[in-house]
Amino acid sequence: MFVAALLLAGTFVAGQTPASPIKLGFLVPLSGAYAQNGRDILNGLLLYLDEIGYRAAGRPIELIVEDDEAIPAVGLTKARKLVERDQVHLMAGALLSSTGYALAPYIDSVRMPMVYPVVSADDLTQRRRSQWIVRTGWSGSQPNHAFGEYAYRDLKLRNVTTIALDYAFGWESVGGFERTFKDEGGAIVQKIWCPVSVHDFAPYLAQVSRDIDAVYALVLGRAALQFMRQYREFGLKQRVLLIGGGTTTDEHVLPFMGDEALGVITALHYSAALDTPANRTFAAAYRARFRKIPSYYAESMYTGAKWLVAAVERVHGRVEDRAAFMDALRSVKVADVPRGPVELDEYGNPIENVYIRRVERVNGELQNTVIATFPRVSQFWKYNPADYLSRPLYSR
Amino acid sequence: MAAGSKIALFVLLVAAPPLFDSYWIGLLTQVLIFAILAMSLDILLGYTGLPSLGHAGLFGVAAYSVALLSTVHHASFWVSVAGGILAGTLVSAIFGLLVSHVRDVYFLMITLALGMVLWGLSYRWIPVTGGDNGISGIPRFDAHAGLPVSGPAPVYYMTLVAFLACSGAMTRLVRSPFGFALRGIRENERRMKSLGFNTWLHCYASYVIAGAFASVAGVVWAYYNGFVSPTYLDLTASSEVFLMVTLGGPGTLVGPALGAGAIVLLKNVMSAYTHRWLLILGIVYIVTILAAPQGVWNVLNSPPRRTRGTRR
Fold first, then answer.
1. Which value does ipTM take for this structure?
2. Which of A267, A311, A350, B140 shows its CA 20 to 30 Å from the CA of A209?
3. Distance in angstroms (rounded) separating the CA atoms of residues B155 and B77
4. Smallest Cα–Cα separation from A295: which of A249, A258, A264?
5. Disruptive mutation site among B136, B233, B267 for chain A (greatest number of A CBs within 10 Å)
6. Yes or no: is domain A142-268+352-390 CATH 3.40.50.2300?
7. CATH architecture of A2-138+275-348
8. How far is Cα B57 from Cα B63, in angstroms, rounded to an integer?
């Protein structure tokens, strides 16, 4: 059936003068420590392009993938290659904040429409906005603002210790949580920072105070697996509730965790267990194609791709008019995306739901069950954007 | 290198921009920058016999200085350039005091540690360096210098001028009596001492000079990319420069420059075609170490003299 459709499409294309392809340049780490996350982002893109048969507004889409090695200077060289040599019309990608910041001035200087599906560095849509970059993912502090309030009001937490990876993503996540949690009246007893390359959490877990209600953890990847294991080994699991940023129990690591992850509560703008028709369809298709649960990385790029294509349709495929395409990218509304309703604010960051998730075992598999939803959360939370921006960026 | 091939290479470098598209000009610019850096390390590693694993640190100090001067302090072009070179040289003058009395693997260890200190500083001194995110928004090389033209070609030519000036100066240096004294120290330090040479001072000077040229490369690299980040000065960066020198041929200046070119081009060209490019790069390293342990240029250039001086 599928083959027949392909053949049909082939003859159809061959029979006509083919429209020139829309070239989409794509950039994520496919080697090094972040290769797995980069692969998930690519998977999300491939899944959506498959769904639309690599065509938008009557033009075929040609995808060019580059590996940025999670090194900003390499990312910039690869971006130059995509723009100057491959002459792409649109770009998408980047995973690390450092790469995101490094690319922005170049992207602006060549006026290249680009979507950042994952890069979460707050300032990219706050104090250092870019003309030509639209973020379809999230900003690091965004779900944590909501989570700080939830932790105080609903989880009734008063004293919290944070343990986080020591880089911008960690600072912004903890910073967002701390701000709203303190506004409510809570106290951050300790802030413990671990180097990004941490192998052993023992020295950090040993510092955790005894007089706290919860530990807030922000880790990802291999470190998340190690953290969960050691948190239990230290006897903290029975005693102190573990909460954290969304990546701590994200689906890119969750399948590799055991019972030590049960009951951990985190906040993010997505959960693979989100029970909506759009997400059920997406998760099933993703699982069928890649044999794993979609992580937020995969969903982010899937939605990002849908967003790009919606903008292409809006301008009837005329992506060569970059200014018009950029307007379309900023104003287009994408419906039925897995994470729920989403729209851009005037700063280029999505306003979207934030989900509070608890790890549970369902049908033998761990999942992030959604236990509360904060609808339509802005990157500025409930604060006035001007006041918010007059304060410095979250730091250690 | 023979005069003929030198002129041919020079003509090729000067005539490159109209022949290639802007992406290739960008890559060539990178090649020139890393050639300066690799040649500067060659003064230490190849001529003086001091293996430094922290060389990218000095390169990074200069790059960060340019970034800070040009973005935070809005300094002019020449102030930023001079500031960058001065800062890198100053740091190497201080570090030189700590490393010049040790040799071989101890030198390697201390320079590695000092390189990590600089990396740690760039990563953790957040109010100044921006931490992991680095500093972006450095003005373009051509624009900041106030050139009437802009684009990849002027940047390339400015880099080419820096490259020619640096390589000329370094060539003169290694051919001077001072350069020969460095080679003497590499071959037999005790004998040089007994001849009355202050070997500590020679090693110190060699370290500072290498640091100064690395700073030039760092300054140009900061302008070329428009941003700086801690990945400039981490161990991976330092060992990559080390590989450029050992691959190309230590103690030749030409070899490391070619090594830099080979590695930059291999990395960028291969990774466009295959995701297994790291594997290929690894194989290239291994084959070179097995087949040409003195570096490609040494093997190509002087086959009859291969065994000279390797054993005492």
1. 0.82
2. A267
3. 14
4. A249
5. B136
6. yes
7. 3-Layer(aba) Sandwich (3.40)
8. 10
